[in-house]
């Protein structure tokens, strides 16, 4: 998946992104609210050496201090410093725990030591920092003080100068406080803004991971281009999603809606896809139920009839027939009646507005797969092909039942309907292999219920008023609504 595809996936799955952001930001705010404030108090020490006043001695002392100051910083957290501080301030903690809250830093090329103490109370943090600095200075000076040599047994000389008491040794290092610690006014943690930013970044990363995982696991097709890249079949049409399709499955004959224009485009692409050998008998099927194959078969047949093509629509879905109820026709007399010899094709053929002939399914038989693959079915199809220029056959889905596999071998072409965001790759692959196995001629695919992009191609050409054409009259829409009111069964789910 490239970057552009990933960004489109994020936009398409914006609810997931929003939920992840809300959860992450909420967690950050919760952590901030329950966290105990921590304050930091800082004191600074200057390490000096006791040297002479000449320049050479000063330089030597500076070099000595810089060489030793890094080692001094490691002494701050030893028990020699922390244990007396705990005892003196009567802290309810251990020397080791206090050491974990002390930080000593030596700025580069200086003889300064910055001591920082963290505590939950600002005033106590300052007291601890100042006490640690005082104790630390004493410990360092004691460590640097030369040890007094043990006197050896010497003979008495009677010299008063030699009998005088020796001078106590003095530490060559002196630590002075350059900045005392004061009680901080604001805590260093938690940091609400930093936690909020971390929550936002964490939420985005979580959302990106979930979207990437779902896109990897989701093998359905989101665009007709993805379908075309997966299967080596031409895409003959893309039918946009319409929330009103279950209530009004038939598009307006003279309307300029997105669905109406899509079916006209499908009709044109189908007519020009096989110019040298145009198919006369076309089966419309899908992999699984709910992909809109019946709706596409009805509207395609109606669009062909409106274009002046002599068309017959056959309801070959003998398990869940929906064509007759949608058009408001008689259901009992139809294809099964002809197949068992109780009637002729002309006796049960029905006409609808627009010049379309419809052969209903008839009574539901106990053996639909055998009837549709029979020699009598082949004879009926040939008879219809002699009577009409195009015969559109709506069939059952391929994967749940075997009805369409036997019927497809008797036709001259097959249209495979693939629903956007529902039909997965395995289903399309299996359905295509099933049709190819029986020698069916694959004409192409129809991408149904596709999301309409804002400002996309359907948005620009949805209405032709800008080109001088008038919008569809209201009376046509009224008649279409009345025709749709006769539906007794949903057609998008077949």
UniProtKB/TrEMBL annotation:
It is an enzyme of class 2 (transferase). GO terms for molecular function: ATP binding; non-membrane spanning protein tyrosine kinase activity. One of its GO terms (cellular component) is plasma membrane. Its EC number is 2.7.10.2. It is a multi-pass membrane protein. It catalyses: L-tyrosyl-[protein] + ATP = O-phospho-L-tyrosyl-[protein] + ADP + H(+). Gene3D superfamilies: P-loop containing nucleotide triphosphate hydrolases. Residues 148-172, 470-494 are annotated as: Disordered. Keywords: ATP-binding, Cell inner membrane, Cell membrane, Kinase, Membrane, Nucleotide-binding, Transferase, Transmembrane, Transmembrane helix, Tyrosine-protein kinase. The keyword Membrane applies. Pfam families: AAA_31 (PF13614), Wzz (PF02706). InterPro entries: AAA_dom, Bact_polysacc_biosynth/exp, LPS_length_determ_N, P-loop_NTPase, Wzc-like_C. Residues 1-88 form the Polysaccharide chain length determinant N-terminal domain. It is found in: Cell inner membrane. Residues 280-408 form the AAA domain. Belongs to the CpsD/CapB family. This is non-specific protein-tyrosine kinase. The lineage of its organism: Bacteria, Bacillati, Actinomycetota, Actinomycetes, Kitasatosporales.
């Amino acid at each position: 998946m490239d970057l552009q595809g990933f960004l489109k996936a994020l936009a398409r799955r914006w609810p997931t992104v929003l939920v992840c952001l809300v959860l992450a930001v909420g967690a950050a705010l919760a952590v901030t609210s329950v966290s105990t404030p921590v304050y930091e108090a800082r004191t600074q020490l200057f390490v000096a050496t006791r040297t002479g006043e000449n320049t050479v001695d000063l330089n030597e002392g500076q070099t000595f201090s810089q060489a030793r100051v890094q080692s001094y910083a490691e002494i701050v957290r030893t028990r020699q410093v922390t244990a007396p501080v705990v005892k003196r301030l009567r802290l309810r903690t251990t020397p080791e725990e206090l050491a974990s809250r002390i930080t000593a830093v030596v700025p580069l090329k200086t003889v300064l030591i910055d001591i920082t103490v963290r505590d939950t109370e600002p005033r106590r943090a300052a007291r601890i920092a100042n006490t640690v600095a005082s104790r630390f200075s004493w410990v360092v000076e004691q460590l640097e003080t030369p040890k007094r040599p043990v006197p050896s047994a010497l003979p008495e000389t009677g010299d008063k100068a030699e009998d005088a008491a020796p001078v106590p040794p003095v530490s060559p290092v002196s630590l002075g406080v350059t900045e005392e610690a004061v009680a901080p006014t604001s805590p260093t943690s938690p940091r609400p803004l930093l936690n909020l930013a971390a929550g936002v970044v964490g939420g985005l990363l979580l959302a990106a991971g979930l979207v990437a995982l779902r896109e990897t696991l989701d093998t359905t097709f989101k665009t007709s281009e993805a379908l075309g890249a997966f299967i080596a079949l031409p895409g003959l049409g893309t039918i946009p999603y319409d929330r009103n399709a279950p209530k009004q499955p038939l598009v307006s004959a003279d309307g300029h809606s997105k669905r109406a224009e899509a079916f006209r485009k499908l009709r044109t692409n189908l007519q020009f896809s096989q110019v040298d050998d145009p198919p006369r008998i076309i089966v419309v099927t899908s992999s699984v139920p709910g992909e809109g194959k019946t709706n596409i078969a009805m509207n395609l047949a109606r669009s062909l009839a409106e274009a002046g093509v002599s068309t017959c629509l056959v309801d070959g879905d003998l398990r869940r027939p929906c064509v007759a109820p949608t058009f408001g026709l008689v259901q009992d007399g139809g294809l099964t009646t002809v197949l068992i010899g109780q009637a002729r094709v002309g006796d049960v053929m029905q006409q609808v507005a627009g010049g379309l002939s419809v052969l209903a399914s008839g009574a539901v038989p106990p053996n639909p797969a055998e009837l549709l693959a029979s020699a009598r079915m082949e004879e009926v199809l040939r008879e219809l092909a002699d009577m009409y220029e195009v015969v559109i056959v709506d069939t059952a889905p391929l994967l749940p039942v075997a009805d369409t596999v036997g019927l497809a071998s008797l036709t001259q072409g097959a249209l495979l309907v693939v629903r956007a965001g529902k039909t997965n790759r395995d289903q399309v692959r299996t359905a295509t292999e099933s049709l190819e196995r029986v020698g069916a001629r694959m004409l192409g695919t129809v991408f149904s219920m596709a999301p309409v992009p804002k400002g996309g191609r359907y948005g620009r050409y949805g209405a032709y008023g800008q080109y001088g054409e008038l919008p569809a009259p209201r009376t046509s829409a009224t008649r279409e609504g009345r025709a749709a009111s006769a539906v007794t069964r949903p057609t998008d789910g077949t």
